[in-house]
Amino acid sequence: MVDISVNGEPRAIPPGHTVAALLGTLGLDPRKVAVERNEAIVSRSQYEATPLDPGDQIEIVHFIGGG
Amino acid sequence: MDTLLRDDDTWTVAGRQFRSRLVVGTGKYKDLEETAQAIEASGAEMVTVAVRRVNLADRGAPMLQDYVDPKRYTYLPNTAGCHTANDAVRTLRLAREAGGWNLVKLEVLGPPPHLYPDMPGTFEAAEALIRDGFEVMVYCADDPLAAKRLEDMGCVAIMPLGAPIGSGLGVQNPAMLSMIIEGAGVPVLVDAGVGTASDAAIAMEIGCDAVLLNSAIAHAQDPVRMARAMKAAVEAGRHARLAGRMPRRMGAEPSSPLTGLIR
């Protein structure tokens, strides 16, 4: 397994997992979130093509109420 | 439909035209149901939204987009909670990716208890965002020099505070706001400080293009009714501004004729 961090929480994922696979595992709709990998945006078109490496810091965000 | 405020009394920011001069936040409501009802009642066409980590422990939770349709309302992602330029830029890049919107609200805040705009951080973030293709509506201090500098940098709207965020203290600085409006070539909005309907009317009477508020509606006892009040207040203030107020005078002047009195 590969150890990464998702939204500040440690998480182990299978080797070769991509951003798309991670979102699928988490049950998240890719159209409603945005993903940052090691402080760089991963564009939606690159989810399938972006593998996750050990130690990756992933942020997954969405819109919530705010002023 | 109000026939007095003509249909062409619109305001434009970054090429987008709006009829409603009330921009409302979507935070602090009891639930998303109430959020949707209050926003509907406010008549707003643009709403501010925050960008936050998805709660991975509660992924089935209802989402803002399901209640406040981004196709109907212009989403204005904010940088609330950002205390550095870097955080603000990262947050808005994520927002652009999540929604595809270039129009954003930048706020870089100082520490509590005042959460006053951190202007050095704001300048730094504004520069980076504009360079990156964002259209920046910027929360700022009520400082005419700072406002002008932000406009010259390319910000598309200047949004000085009327009082600290969430304070509800009303427009504490009408003279400074007037000076900023006088010198501005882009829309000026009061952002923060409005507590009740009269505050919003005052902001519009001073000459603001629009008013941005959240807590005044969300923290009212009856948010939906206050949303209606704010809609009416912004329209009233706009009418008063266009009508041109009477001059102030230090003495009385009778309203009824002094001739023809009975003796």
Would you give an account of this structure?
The complex is a heterodimer of chains A (67) and B (263). Chain A is mainly beta. Helices cover 12% and strands 39% of the residues of chain A. Chain A has a 5-stranded mixed sheet, with no helix packed on it. By secondary structure, chain B is of the alpha/beta class. Chain B is 37% helix and 16% strand. In chain B, strand 7 (135-140), helix 5 and strand 8 (157-160) form a beta-alpha-beta unit. In chain B, helix 1 runs parallel beside helix 9 and helix 5 (144-153) packs parallel to helix 6. The longest helix of chain B has 21 residues, at 223-243. The termini of chain B are far apart. The mean pLDDT of chain B is 93. The interface between A and B is medium-sized, with 25 and 36 residues.
Name some characteristics of this structure.
heterodimer, A: 67 residues, mainly beta, 5 strands, 12% helix, 39% strand, B: 263 residues, alpha/beta, 3-stranded parallel sheet, 37% helix
Q: Quickly count the helices of chain B.
A: 9
> Level of helix content of chain A?
10-25%
Radius of gyration of chain A, CA atoms, in whole angstroms: 12 Å
Which strands sit side by side, in order, in the main sheet of chain B? 5-4-3-10-9
Strand content of the residues of chain A, in percent? 35-45%
